[in-house]
Amino acid sequence: MADDLSSFAKDVLLVKGLKNSTLVWRLVVLTFAMVCGVYICTICLKQIGTSSKIGLLDIKVIQNPCPEPNIEPWEIPYVHYPNPKTYSREECSCHPVRYFAILSMQRSGSGWFETFLNSHPNISSNGEIFSVKVRRSNVSTITETLDTIYNLDWLSSASKNECTTAVGLKWMLNQGLMQHHEQIAEYFRIHGVSVIFLFRRNLLRRMVSLLANEYDRNAKLLNGTHKSHVHSPKEVSVCTLFCACMCATCV
After folding, report:
1. 3-state secondary structure 75-100
2. Which residue ranges run through the membrane (predicted)?
3. What is the pTM of this model?
4. How far apart are CA 155 and CA 100, in angstroms?
5. Can you give the pLDDT at residue 140?
6. Distance between CA 94 and CA 70 in Å, rounded?
């Protein structure tokens, strides 16, 4: 009887040991399956995220660099490729632009010369930009205005629909130019600006033009309006009446 009980107890312990070992193996297999599942899910999520990012990427066309302009080596500092902020210059991005400034005095023919330049479809001369005092109040405002002009962001009647190859302005000596001449000369040197000095050789004719302009400012001979410049033979014939009046006064 005692042997039977001992054998029964051994059988029970053996069955319990087998059950315990089976449970441990099941836990191990379950843990391994969970780890594998998490790893597989992580890889899948990464692949999904990568594919979505690829789908949202902006495809940019890499443009070829602009060809070297066929110019002399000394001209290279005077050739520029501006990038305006107010509009896209993509079609003309490879068209080089030259900067210029017409330095002159009133009644010296600068208006006629600028009209002649603006008759070209690829040249823009923006007039007396610094006739407005605020723009020439200090060096900072002057350089900011020049940056806007030479970056092709200055929109005026001189702006062209064709690709601009030369852009500049007309600048009178008494419009802040002489007060800040050193800083302006340095700006022109750094930015490769070509300077055109335009002066009237016949000082007597310039004085007559000044007096005629002052006379017309008050008399307003042209349809009751004052015009600093005339652009037709009829306007010239009307304004020459001042010369007759001046000669009569002198006599």
Report:
1. HHHHCECCCCCCCCCCCCCCCCEEEE
2. 23-45
3. 0.63
4. 17
5. 95
6. 13
Q: What is the number of alpha carbons within 13 Å of residue 161 lying toward its C-beta?
A: 0
| Whether the Cβ atoms of residue 140 and residue 68 lie closer than 8 Å to each other | no
What is the dihedral angle through the alpha carbons of 160, 164, 166, 168, rounded to the nearest 10 degrees?
Answer: 50
Polymer length of the chain: 251
The pLDDT tens digits for 174-233 are 999 999 999 999 999 999 999 999 988 888 877 777 777 676 667 665 565 655 565 566
Nearest to 172 by CA among 223, 141, 128: 128
Q: Which of 74, 132, 122, 127 is nearest to 102 (CA)?
A: 127
Cα–Cα distance, 129 to 167 (Å, whole number):
13
Strand order in the sheet with 123-125: 123-125, 166-172, 98-104, 193-198
CB neighbours of 127 closer than 8 A, spacing ≥ 6? 114, 156, 158, 169, 170
